[in-house]
UniProtKB/TrEMBL annotation:
Name of the protein in question: OmpA-like domain-containing protein
Organism placement in taxonomy: Bacteria, Pseudomonadati, Bacteroidota, Flavobacteriia, Flavobacteriales
A matching Pfam family: OmpA
Cellular-component GO terms for this entry: cell outer membrane
PROSITE patterns listed in its UniProt record: OMPA_2
Keyword Lipid metabolism: no
Ranges annotated as biased composition (Low complexity): 77-89
Species for this entry: Aequorivita ciconiae
Region (Disordered) residue spans: 54-89
Top-level division of the source organism's lineage: Bacteria
Length: 416
């Protein structure tokens, strides 16, 4: 009987122990789960840090970051439209490019006149947060916070786009967050009320994303990037451009014409940039250039003018090496000369007044010769072309503003 009671007591003790252990066991497992969660979070944060550092390293290596004195010298020198040269943006890959920018630049900003960490002087902030920063040694406008962050250029009038116009800008993508710049085109509807259409340059990646879409216009559409552009999009600079003429809007990224809307249904009169941005994944833009006019179509037409003034032939900083996006204007010149086989041109190069007069004279001569060499490669006889550099002589605009200096940096084709 005693043994039986002991057995019962032992059983009851085990039973009671198990009951009281359940809360303790739950707490133990909860602690273990919390510990695992903490470790997992730490691991994710470490991975994010590694990805961010890797992206910044790529940006630095592509931009050719130098010491502070070299960077400052570059920023004080003549600049034009600039984007990192990569195999996907070579002169050869632009051989069918047909974008020709307008012939009168009304706004230009490469952010070289602004201090890093400050809001740029030539813009207004409508919502969110934005600041000038660098990608490597390239100054750029970082839209850093907001859903949506929105910025607009400071212009003398509320409506400054009329008739044909072109807008160009460069954007960088490091593969983090949204980072898709939205070009806002403002217009008045049929009732005279102000409206805003959106041209969204959705960033590309290896997962098949990448497109341009038109929204909030009377007529809308969208188009995908080609596969080659999607796959090479991350961690590179890309040149974006739009041209509006006769109700038609064309949109480009690098050498590709992505989208054509033949009947937009409105006449844009101003622009802005917006998008979803965060501190760790800002929208980055630079080399914003807006011009009136654009897309001079001279194919099959008899040329009767005395000269053509172009602003679409651009060069690397303080060099005579052509930017790939120059091919749109060069293709136009080639087509014109093939349609008019008796025409001969003197290629005249001009700079702004940055740097010494002697340096600018030499640089302009080298650049005019670079243009001639490229045209010869494209099938034009060298006997039909001559060159001359004028440096900063004969400015056609003031040298006191970014837009004025951009107008003075030009290549003229003078009929001889």
């Amino acid at each position: 009987m005693k043994n039986r009671c002991n057995f019962v007591y032992a059983g009851l003790s085990i039973f009671m122990t198990l009951i009281f252990m359940q809360p303790c066991e739950a707490q133990i497992w909860k602690k273990i789960a919390n510990k695992v969660e903490e470790k997992t979070t730490d691991r994710v944060l470490d991975d994010v840090d590694k990805v961010t550092e890797k992206s910044l390293d790529k940006a630095d290596s592509q931009s050719g970051e130098g010491d502070e004195s070299d960077t400052q010298n570059n920023l004080n020198s003549e600049t034009g439209i600039s984007s990192s040269e990569t195999p996907s943006t070579s002169i050869k890959s632009y051989q069918n490019y047909d974008f020709v920018p307008g012939d009168n630049i009304i706004f230009m900003d490469d952010f070289t006149e602004d201090q890093v960490g400050e809001f740029p002087a030539h813009w207004t902030l409508e919502s969110g947060q934005a600041v000038v920063n660098r990608v490597g040694n390239i100054p750029a406008f970082f839209l850093t916070d907001g859903n949506y962050v929105k910025v607009a250029p400071k212009m003398k009038s509320k409506e400054y786009l009329a008739g044909p116009f072109t807008i160009e800008f460069d954007t960088y993508n490091n593969g983090e967050g949204s980072e898709s710049p939205v070009l806002v085109l403002k217009y008045n509807d049929q009732n005279g009320d102000s409206q805003e259409g959106e041209v969204t340059f959705s960033r590309g990646d290896n997962n098949g994303y990448g497109s341009i879409s038109l929204d909030e216009f009377p007529h809308t559409t969208s188009a995908q990037f080609p596969s080659a552009l999607k796959e090479s999009y991350e961690n590179h600079w890309h040149h974006c451009a739009v041209i509006f003429k006769d109700d038609q809007l064309k949109c480009y990224v690098d050498q590709y014409r992505i989208l054509t809307m033949p009947n937009l249904g409105c006449a844009p009169n101003a622009f802005a940039f917006e998008g979803i941005a965060e501190q760790d994944s800002p929208i980055m833009i630079t080399n914003v250039r807006v011009a009136s006019g654009g897309e001079m179509n001279m194919v099959g037409k008899k040329f009767t003018a005395s000269k053509i003034v172009t602003h679409g032939i651009n060069f690397d900083l303080n060099k005579a090496s052509l930017k790939p996006e120059s091919m749109g204007t060069l293709n136009m010149i080639v087509n014109l000369m093939k349609s008019n086989p008796s025409i001969k041109f003197e290629i005249d190069g001009y700079t702004d007044n940055s740097g010494s007069a002697e340096h600018n004279l030499t640089l302009s001569q080298q650049r005019s010769e670079a243009v001639k060499n490229q045209l010869v490669k494209m099938g034009i006889s060298s006997s039909r072309l001559s060159t001359k550099g004028f440096g900063d002589a004969s400015p056609i605009s003031e040298n006191t503003t970014l837009a004025g200096r951009a107008n003075n940096r030009r290549v003229e084709f003078v009929k001889v």
